[in-house]
Amino acid sequence: MADIIKLLPDHVANQIAAGEVVQRPASVVKELMENAIDAGATCIKLIVKDGGKTLIQVVDDGSGMSETDARLSFERHATSKISSAQDLFNLATKGFRGEALASIAAIAHVDMQTRTAANEVGTHLKIEGSKIVSQEVIATPEGTSISVKNLFFNIPARRNFLKSTQVELRHITDEFHRVALVHPNIEFHFYNNGSEIFNLPIGKHRQRIVHIFGSKMDNRLVPVSEETEVVKVSGFICKPEFAKKSRGEQFFFANNRYIKSPYLHHAVVAAFEGLIKSDTHPGYFLFLEVDPSSIDINIHPTKTEVKFDDENTLYAILRSTIKHSLGQFNVAPVLDFDH
Ligand code: ADP
Ligand code: MG
Questions:
Q1: What family, per the record (predicted)?
Q2: Is the C-beta atom of 71 inside 6 A of ligand 1?
């Protein structure tokens, strides 16, 4: 029988990878904003139209790219962030897989304008379905602007699967919150259909939380702070009397990355035991710092699921730290459990 195995062409491989990296417009927002942060931006603008279905644009004032790098950035496994497998155990950047731009360009129309400080003119690239359709020299500010239109234009099933504009905008807003919360040292602007819905000046974590969730937050926050050999914990919990019926504001960040961890979530809930009704949820904004070699973030392309070396110890430290903060700030039970 004849040999039947063949290597898939790059544009097909990119489209397959895109299925994992890009689930919806919010995934594009996450990837583009993370790239802007990795590029050292001090100001990031997010511009969307119709819940990202018509337009997703991220403009940064970061390092920009040379003409060659601009083209290479859309290749699969093309990254400036790691060069060896060893680097995976010591990641300082959000990106490292070199997949996002290749994936996005495989399933959308992408327009990139970029310039480095060393170059007087910039590069303007248009890519549709992995193909460069035009490349020009352009006068553009230092930094990078990437627009993504017609997402899933060549995957009708995905395009049809998109939810209402309202729902997609909510997912985008969630991603925006996650990125903005962990980088209060970066200025963010978020425009939806031409109007500015967030304007976040540079500040501290507490101010950033208040800017995002409103001034009502200011007197709800109780600081959390602990440093052990295993982990440094900082951030805030919300006072028990502000626990909500809906899940509300619950954020974990590990090494400056938003993560989902049902196990650590449970540690927080356990610390609130007896202080809140069992059908309500505590609010928290918790920043964990661990040795980069003790955390594996390469479990899934979206990198929100992570694996800690010593989860049990983390659990115990988190629970006791939060209990301590609740006690120290005289947060006593205020609920009448008879009702
Ligand atoms: P990764 O972030 O994993 O490296 P991406 O596909 O997201 O992969 O980006 C590929 C490369 O393109 C990055 O490593 C970086 O060198 C470059 N790049 C992407 N976005 C930007 C940006 N906004 N500013 C400067 N360089 C960028
Ligand atoms: Mg990236």
A1: Belongs to the DNA mismatch repair MutL/HexB family.
A2: no
Question: Across residues 198-205, what is the average pLDDT?
Answer: 98
User: 34, 38, 115: which to mutate for ligand 1, most atoms within 8 A of CB?
Assistant: 38
Contacts of 252 (CB under 8 A, 6+ apart): 258, 259, 260, 261, 264, 265, 284, 286, 288
Ligand 1 centre from 308 Cα, in Å?
Answer: 26
CATH of domain 216-328: 3.30.230.10
Residue to mutate, 60, 73, 91, 97, ligand 1, most ligand atoms under 8 Å from C-beta: 73
| Residue 180 confidence class, pLDDT cut points 50, 70, 90 | very high
Residue 17 confidence (pLDDT) above 70 = yes
Q: What is the ipTM of this complex?
A: 0.99
- 31 C-beta closer than 6 A to ligand 1: yes
Superfamily grouping for domain 10-200 = Histidine kinase-like ATPase, C-terminal domain (3.30.565.10)
Phi, psi of 309 (to 5 degrees): -60, -45
Find where tokens 């009448």 sit: 336
Mean pLDDT, the chain, rounded, equals 93
Residue bearing the CA closest to ligand 1, atom 12: 73
For residue 197 the two structure tokens come to 């819905």
Domain chopping of the chain, boundaries: 10-200, 216-328
